[in-house]
Design goal:
The chain has 561 residues and is of the alpha+beta class. The structure holds coenzyme A.
């Protein structure tokens, strides 16, 4: 067994390039020509094929490394001399990586003489040796005569039976002509068009590592001065099958797109180097992009559409949406538009429910004495023309409870780092109206009498039902009472009216048996349910708050204490 170090080949002018993909694993059996790694410069990407057949024994680079010519890529173990003996046509990597010079590959043609122009030289663009394939189809043309093109920019795409390849501009310059159209079948050496190089490009040989991966076969009759012969490119093409080379590119695209090792099951992804590079920069997985080019080829425009669609989609953290069901498919329906208040309720309830971790605690207040007291006030109610329901008593009891438990008269600051304690006592009351639920606010509840509270509650409720409430009358609440009154039910879980931190639900008063330690007594009890924001209030706080209410409502004299 012999070990060989495989090194980074000549980089076609680039001093340092990035390793963007490692295509083999340690211990993997590798064939000659199989891609080992992919390198990328700021202009193009190139694959480094294996110069040997053997087994990988230690990879010296990792994705993201920047490497130079001669750096070790990996060590390979070769069984005997046979493998390396079979390799001579493909010398270590250099045969397929460095393509520093344009290559005259048209069979039987030598380098054409330069056609000097004011701007540079004219290059004849020719189909490369197709390695045995009779012809390939022009499936995409990305430039027109007169276009200024930059070196490496895709001019057109050719497609064989198995894969496609881009034909990049061999130099910066102006495209003088493209003598083909989409659908044409072209053969090795056929002239495709002409490109006049920019003056600067004409002064120096054209280095084009881009051609290696995108078009190992990109060719031109180059009339550039000092046009170096291109034995490397010729060797590659002569040695391998161009279609197979194209297939490797195609396979690589698939792997890159899927972010995994080569797999027979991977769906093909057609995209050129420029598109792939852009996709990598933005982080777009190519296998999620639908190509709109010929045969599903992914174009730049497809990347734009993909990004637009993704930006328009709900963020990943959004809740899954409720299915949009066609109810008419199951029976007759009627669609009724929501009022503005109802629409606002949709938003407000969702916001509170989603933002506030709710907990609800339940208890019963023995209001037998309160009800007796209220009964006793009936003549006075008539005299004052002011009816006392349980609600004003609840308002008073809540005001006292808020004073005793200031954490309930608070709001959590949006940054979640502070609690805003309110030194005033405004309480909202939920009012059911034909237009929807409205919550007017009674101000300074702690400073008002039961009579005042009763009158104000009624006035606000009437205003709410007659759509006369002003915005200011619905703002500033510290706490909310939602009384279902005599509507029914033994309890419910009201939703906190955020940024308030708690809400009291009141259900229907009923006579229930209460154990006094010796016997069951028939008592009038009021079901209470306290929902609270568990970020601010813990269960013990809530238990104390609710017990306080139960005690005060059970014995109104305690309001004097
Ligand atoms: N149990 C039994 N009866 C009750 C009661 C209770 N908890 N609360 C009130 N009542 C009685 C009242 O004493 C009154 O009786 P009466 O007519 O014999 O005197 C009757 O129910 C109607 O009271 P109401 O007119 O509703 O006054 P109120 O002061 O109790 O309530 C409002 C005023 C505005 C809160 C109320 O009318 C209302 O709209 N409640 C609905 C709130 C709501 O929809 N909440 C749910 C939000 S999700």
């Amino acid at each position: 067994m012999k070990r060989e170090s495989v090194k980074v080949p000549e980089l076609g002018g680039a001093s340092e390039v990035e390793v963007i993909e490692i295509a083999v694993a340690d211990g993997a059996a590798v064939a000659i020509g199989q891609t080992l790694i992919t390198l990328e410069s700021d202009k193009a990407s190139m694959e480094v094929p294996s110069p040997l057949a053997g087994t990988v024994r230690g990879i010296s680079v990792k994705v993201g490394d920047r490497v130079r010519e001669g750096d070790e890529i990996l060590v390979m173990e070769i069984a005997g001399e046979a493998a390396s003996a079979s390799a001579p046509p493909v010398t270590p990597a250099s045969t397929v990586t460095a393509a520093p010079a344009p290559a005259p590959v048209a069979p039987g043609e030598g380098p054409a003489p330069a056609a000097p122009t004011a701007g540079g030289v004219v290059l004849a663009l020719r189909v490369p040796d197709l390695g045995g394939a009779d012809s390939v189809e022009v499936i995409e043309i990305s430039a027109r005569a007169g276009d200024s093109v930059t070196e490496g920019a895709s001019l057109l795409v050719l497609e064989g039976d198995k894969a496609s390849m881009e034909f990049p501009a061999p130099a910066d310059g102006t495209l003088l002509a493209l003598d083909i159209k989409v659908g044409d079948r072209v053969t090795s050496g056929q002239k495709l068009g002409e490109l006049r190089t920019a003056a600067a490009a004409a002064a120096a040989p054209v280095a084009q590592p881009a051609a290696v991966v995108a078009a190992p076969v990109a060719v031109a009759d180059v009339a550039a001065p000092a046009a170096a012969p291109a034995p490397d490119v010729q060797a590659t093409l002569a040695d391998g099958d161009a279609v197979a080379a194209i297939t490797r590119v195609f396979e690589k695209e698939t792997r890159l797109a899927a972010g995994r090792a080569p797999s027979a099951a991977a769906a093909p992804v057609y995209a050129g180097p420029a598109v792939r590079q852009l996709a990598r920069e933005i982080g777009i997985p190519l296998d999620e992009v639908r190509g709109s080019g010929p045969k599903g080829r992914i174009l730049r425009e497809d990347l734009r559409s993909y990004v637009k669609t993704r930006l328009a989609a709900p963020p990943a953290t959004a809740l899954p949406t409720v299915p949009d069901v066609d109810f008419a498919a199951f029976g007759p329906i009627e669609t009724v538009a929501l009022s503005n208040i109802q629409k606002a309720t949709v938003t407000n309830m969702s916001r509170s429910w989603l933002n506030v971790p709710h907990v609800t605690q339940f208890d019963y207040a023995d209001v037998t004495e309160l009800e007796a007291f209220r009964d006793s006030l009936k003549p006075e109610m008539e005299q004052r023309k002011n009816k006392l329901t349980p609600l004003p008593f609840l308002l008073l009891a809540v005001a006292r409870a808020l004073r005793e438990h200031p954490r309930f008269n608070a709001a959590l600051a949006p940054d979640g780092a502070n609690l805003v304690l309110k030194k005033y006592c405004h309480v909202g009351i939920a009012v059911d109206t034909p237009q929807g639920l409205v919550v007017p606010v009674i101000r300074d509840v702690d400073r008002k009498s039961v009579w005042e509270l009763a009158a104000e509650a009624r006035e606000l409720a009437d205003k709410a039902r007659n759509r006369k409430l002003k915005l200011a009358e619905m703002q500033g609440a510290c706490f909310t009472i939602s009384s279902l009154g005599n509507i029914g039910g033994e309890g419910f879980t009201p939703i906190v009216n955020a940024p308030e931190v708690a809400i009291l639900g009141v259900s229907k008063l009923a006579v229930r048996p209460v154990w006094n330690g010796q016997e069951f007594l028939a008592r009038k009890t009021l079901p209470l349910s306290l929902s609270y924001d568990h970020r601010v209030i813990n269960g013990a706080d809530a238990g104390n708050f609710l017990s306080f209410l139960v005690v005060v409502l059970g014995d109104l004299r305690r309001l004097l204490l």
